[in-house]
Design goal:
The chain is mainly alpha-helical. It has eleven helices and no strands. The longest helix is centred in the C-terminal third of the chain and has 41 residues.
Length: 274
C-alpha cells in the first residue's frame, strides 16, 4: 500500500510539473527546436529583452497586478472587518455567500458582464472607447476581492475577542484597538490575500481579454497573440522567468510566515514558564 500511495503521488506530481520543467528546459535550448535538445544557451533570454513589445506587456502586467492587488487588499480588509464585526448572524451569512459568488462564477461570464457594464455606462455618459487600463484595473480588483475576504475572515474568527475588550477597557479607541490588536492578528491573512491577488491578476487572461484594448496589453494577452503565429522560444524564456519570480515570492512568504510562527511559539513558551 505504501508503494502504491507513493507511486500515485509521483504520477500526480509528474503530470503537474512535467510541462513546467519542459518549458524551463527548452527555454535554454540553443537550436530553438522542440524535436531535439542541442545544448544550453541564453540566446532566447537575450532575444526576449530585445523585444520591446514583450517588455512593455510585462511592465503593464506588473503595474496592473501590483495596483489591483493593493486595492483589493485594502477594500477586502475593510469588507472582512465589517462582516466579522457585524452582530447580525444572518447578515454575516448573506455577505459570506455573496462574496463567494464571484469565485464560483465562470471567468467568461464575469468578463462578458463587466465588458457590457463598462460599455453601457460609457454609452450613458457619452464616452467613446472606454476599455483600457482603467477598466482592467477595476475588473482585476473586483475579481480579487473575494479571495482577500476569504483569506482574512478566518483570522478574525481565530482572534481572541478578550484582547479587544481588554484594550477598549484600558482606554484604547476602536481605531487604536484595530491597529494595535486586530491588524497584527490578521496580518498573515492580509499577506496571503495580497499574494494570491497578485498572482491571479498576473495570470488572468479570460477577463482581461474582454475588458482590454489594443493600447494596453498584458503578458497573458501578448502570449496568446503570439500563439496565433509560430511561438518564439523567447516566450518559453519569459514563462521561465515568471515561474522563478513566483517561486521566489512564495518561498519568501513561507519563510516569513515560518519565522513569525516560531517567534509566537517562543513567546508562548516564555509566557508559560513565567
Amino acid at each position: 500500500m505504501k508503494f502504491l500511495s507513493r507511486f500515485y503521488i509521483f504520477i500526480i506530481f509528474a503530470i503537474l510539473y512535467a510541462p513546467i520543467l519542459l518549458v524551463i528546459l527548452f527555454s535554454f535550448n540553443a537550436s530553438g527546436s522542440l524535436s531535439h535538445f542541442s545544448g544550453f544557451s541564453l540566446y532566447w533570454y537575450k532575444d526576449l529583452f530585445r523585444n520591446a513589445e514583450a517588455i512593455t506587456a510585462l511592465k503593464n502586467s506588473l503595474i496592473l497586478a501590483v495596483s489591483s492587488s493593493l486595492l483589493a487588499t485594502i477594500f477586502g480588509t475593510l469588507a472582512a472587518f465589517s462582516i466579522a464585526h457585524s452582530k447580525n448572524k444572518y447578515y454575516q451569512g448573506i455577505m459570506r455567500s455573496v462574496s463567494n459568488i464571484p469565485m464560483m462564477n465562470p471567468d467568461i461570464v464575469t468578463g462578458v458582464s463587466m465588458m457590457l457594464l463598462f460599455v453601457g455606462v460609457a454609452a450613458m455618459i457619452g464616452l467613446g472607447d472606454v476599455l483600457g487600463m482603467w477598466t482592467m484595473l477595476i475588473a482585476h480588483t473586483t475579481f480579487n476581492l473575494p479571495y482577500v475576504i476569504l483569506s482574512i475572515l478566518p483570522k478574525f474568527k481565530q482572534m481572541d475577542k478578550h484582547l479587544i475588550e481588554a484594550a477598549l477597557d484600558l482606554g484604547c479607541t476602536p481605531t487604536q484597538t484595530f491597529f494595535r490588536i486586530e491588524l497584527p492578528s490578521i496580518l498573515p491573512g492580509i499577506i496571503s490575500g495580497l499574494m494570491m491577488s497578485f498572482t491571479l491578476s498576473l495570470d488572468d487572461f479570460v477577463i482581461s481579454h474582454f475588458v482590454s484594448s489594443p493600447d494596453f496589453k498584458t503578458l497573458p494577452l501578448y502570449i496568446y497573440n503570439q500563439t496565433a503565429h509560430e511561438v518564439k522560444f523567447s516566450m518559453y524564456a519569459l514563462c521561465t522567468l515568471m515561474i522563478f519570480a513566483i517561486l521566489l515570492l512564495l518561498i519568501a512568504v513561507n519563510v516569513a510566515g515560518g519565522k513569525k510562527d516560531r517567534a509566537e511559539k517562543a513567546k508562548r513558551l516564555k509566557g508559560g514558564k513565567r
